[in-house]
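Example pasted here:
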Amino acid sequence: MQFQSTVFPTAEDIKLWERLSPEQQRAIITRELDEAEESGVAESVSMDDLIARVRARKR
């Protein structure tokens, strides 16, 4: 099961989440946490670099 966004859920994501049992919700939360831990430490970037990346994507 995949949500469009777990940070900014859509109305469809919320409806889907609410249809899940508490056990299913916990399983998804555990999966998301495990994936985050396995992805490692994020690279360190300055705020200027981050802003430049965002602006480059919008072009």
